[in-house]
Amino acid sequence: MAQGTGVSYEELQLAARNHGLPLEALRWDVTPVGLHYLLVHYDIPDVDADAWRLEVDGLVERPLSLSLADLRDRDAVELAVTLECAGNGRAHVEPHVVSQPWLLEAVGTARWRGVPLASLLDEAGVQDSAVDVLFTGLDRGVEGEEEQSYARSLPLADAVAGDALLAYEINSVPLPPQHGFPLRLVVPGWYGMASVKWLARITLLAEPFDGYQMRHSYRLRAEEDEDGVPLSRIQVRSLLVPPGIPEFLSRARVVEAGTCVLGGRAWSGEGEVEGVEVSTDGGETWTEVELGPAALGRYAWRGWSFRWEATPGEYELCSRARDAAGNVQPLDPPWNVGGYANNAVQRVAVTVPDRG
Q1: pTM attached to this predicted model
Q2: At residue 3, does pLDDT exceed 90?
Q3: Would you tell me which CATH number, out of the four given (1.10.101.10, 3.60.40.10, 1.10.10.10, 3.90.420.10), belongs to the domain 9-230?
Q4: Domain 237-352 has what CATH class?
């Protein structure tokens, strides 16, 4: 174990490979590519773009084998999408869950450009017997003692009814290697595990895919031996842009007395964000704040702001969001075996010094 942290050496290896969004970067409507959160399950594959092909097979009338140029020649769309890791907030749950030790930074919003998944499936001609769409990436590893390519599926109804995108650009530049070059899936509104990177094959199946990432990973379970419930859509959440300046080690904030404009972002995969409240006393009392417009579209976060008259003292700032489906962030972290979907309110320690 890393002394004094309760985090294992193996978890530190994961934390060194992956990175979150520095929360001060919430100030940007669209996250700069290098600051967008990143989770790589296995290794970043070495892909020869000239030799790479996307295969579309299985229960289709017209199997496809497409180059990157073939995809770029098709009609493209661009969507602003907030992606969040299903394990975001895992480090805050008790008892400790051993995995990538995310705090609250596993999120980002980007403009993704590519080919709508539904149009490509229509081109291939999905057979009536198909019920599931399997997406297989080029990244390979061993997990749960199984050697595997990272592969996940979507029910056919979700794959064709939503705005899932086969993306080859992020923020108007080609995908960098760590974000899935040359092609990745982006599933708006779903946790990031659904957005398979380094995509190589799309297969139409007659029954739900039972691979490791569907059967074992990304399921809400109270006990290890339960089947559990599969994760899908992002739970409602709000985060603050950290105010003032940080204390180096603890990241606790120091804010000068006077008017302090607090701000942040809120999002949900279950429905439009309808409101955000802020508390300056650790959740004892709440004030409704001003919610910004949904300028980036329905799949991206919304900004909010609040003018706080800060007086000398110690504070714990919190924010909580609610969505059109009636969901509200809980005050306390929910626990499950994987430490998933912890959308409990953020707590930010703040000192307002008395300079008098």
Answers
A1: 0.95
A2: no
A3: 3.90.420.10
A4: mainly beta
